[in-house]
Structure formats: structure tokens, C-alpha cells
Amino acid sequence: MSDTVLFLKDASIFQGENLVLSDVSVSVEKGEFVYLIGKTGTGKSSFMKTLYGDLPLQKGEGEIVGYDLATLKENDIPFLRRKLGVVFQDFKLLNDRTVHDNLNFVLTATGWKDKPAIESKINEVLAKVGMKTKSFKYPYQLSGGEQQRVAIARALLNDPELILADEPTGNLDPQTSVEVMEVLREINKNGNTILMATHDYALLLKYPSKTLKCDENQIFEVVQKTV
Ligand SMILES: Nc1ncnc2c1ncn2[C@@H]1O[C@H](COP(=O)(O)OP(=O)(O)OP(=O)(O)O)[C@@H](O)[C@H]1O
Predict the structure, then answer these.
(1) What SMART domains does this protein's entry cite (predicted)?
(2) Is the pLDDT of residue 1 over 70?
């Protein structure tokens, strides 16, 4: 049980008055790579937002990296997010500072003070995504794939118990998507747990893994056919 990083039980997810997902019962175990798929508008983003505290869980039970989602308070959210690494489709890097300073910003904001420790952490996460030589660049000097690698590096800074990636390849061409996916798979092989929302079925076929599907207000696990 202690290896469960996320579970929801009989949960309902609303956007305002609208019920987006109901009777959601899912779990993610430490070390898993889990896809969340579904057509546009079926609730993938709403589900992810609930997990990182952007949408309240109004009905049912849920726990993520030790936080109870049903009783989550506004004040808990920054602490919850420190235990999560969140990666978005549009990277969300700060364009007015270099890669190094984007990462430094997050570390400083989350309480890191020791300069050598900060530098060593920045080097460590950039090495993991193959971006160590580009730390002096500004985000707008990087390709989309490189920006997403930096966003993944940023997600790794505080050794997250779970990485939530919402359409991380949504803005990338197929070849770059595969490269970013390889980075995520490598990180997963090294022990990070990842939940990735995607509508990129080509990636799913190329890299089969546990898959949850949103459809008709429900989430269920789909069994992938093996050839
Ligand atoms: N802020 C909001 N207010 C009200 N309704 C919303 C809001 N955001 C999303 N919705 C509705 O909730 C439903 C699920 O949307 P959501 O964005 O979670 O789907 P999605 O599967 O992530 O889609 P996409 O792949 O296009 O991002 C949709 O019917 C959408 O119109």
C-alpha cells in the first residue's frame, strides 16, 4: 500500500457545474509509467488539474503523494507541487532568463540556499535530459524539443515522487516527440513514476505501457493487444 503514489476511489470531477468524470477509481504505483488517453474534451486535463490541486475534488476519495485531495487546502498546494513534477504542453519556461536561471529560480523559490548544492542540482537535472551544454541559452533560443527537455529537468529538481505530464509532446513534431519520450522513459527506468496524458497513439504503440482511458465520463484501464 505504501507503494501507491496516487489513488482515486469513486471520485467525480467537475468543471463548474458540469460533471466531467464520475466513479473514477484508479491507482498508480511507484515506478510505473502510465498513459492517460482519450479524445479531446473527455477530461484528461481536468483529471490532471485535480491531481495537482488546480481543481478541487468535490466527491469521492483521492490521495496523491501522501496528500488527501478531498481535504486539500489552498496552503497545502505549494507543498503538494514540490512533491510532484508537472510538465505542460506549452513548456511554461520563463523567457526573460536563461535555462540555468529558470532552474535556479525554482530551487530558490522552494527554499534552496546553498550555492554549490544548487549548481550541482542544476547540472544533475540538465545532464539527465541531455541539456548540460545549453544552460546559458534563453528559452527562445531553443527548439521546442529542447525547451521541453528543460521543462522536464525543472520537474526533476525537487526529486518528485510523481511526474504529471499533460500532453508533453502536443506541440512537437513526431521525431521530436519520440526524442522527448525517450527522455521520459529513461527517467522512468531510473525510478521516477510518470503519469502522462496524451492523444499521441503512435507513442503508445511504440512504447506500450499501462494505459488509462477517458471516455463517456469514465476512466478505465485498457488492455493493450500484444502482437
Ligand atoms: N474552465 C472550464 N470551465 C468549464 N468547463 C470546462 C473548463 N475547462 C474544461 N471544461 C470542460 O470540461 C470538459 C473536459 O475538458 P478537458 O480540458 O479536461 O478535456 P481534455 O480531454 O483534456 O481535452 P483536450 O485534449 O482538448 O485538452 C470539456 O467538456 C470542457 O469543455
Answers:
(1) AAA (SM00382)
(2) no
Q: From ligand 1's centre to the CA of 41, what distance in Å?
A: 5
What per-residue confidence (pLDDT) applies to 223? Answer: 82
Residue in this structure with the C-alpha cell 477530461, named with its chain if needed: 43
| Burial per residue of 211-221, b for 16 or more beta-carbon CB atoms within 10 angstroms, e otherwise | bbbbeeeebee
Which of 45, 54, 164, 167 most suits a substitution to test ligand 1, by most atoms within 8 Å of the C-beta?
A: 45
**What residues flank ligand 1, with Cβ below 6 Å?**
15-16, 18, 20, 38, 40-46, 199, 214
- Of 6, 53, 30, which is closest to residue 219 (Cα–Cα)? 6
The pLDDT of residue 83: 93
Atom 16 of ligand 1, residue of closest alpha carbon:
43
Instruction: Give the pLDDT of residue 206.
Output: 94
Domain topology for 4-222: Rossmann fold (3.40.50)
The pairing of beta strand 210-215 with beta strand 218-222: antiparallel
Q: How far is CA 93 from the centre of its chain?
A: 15
Q: Which helix (H) or strand (E) holds 188?
A: helix 174-189
The Cα 137–Cα 100 span in angstroms is: 8
Whose cell is 521541453? That residue is: 148
Q: What is the ipTM of this complex?
A: 0.90
pTM: 0.93
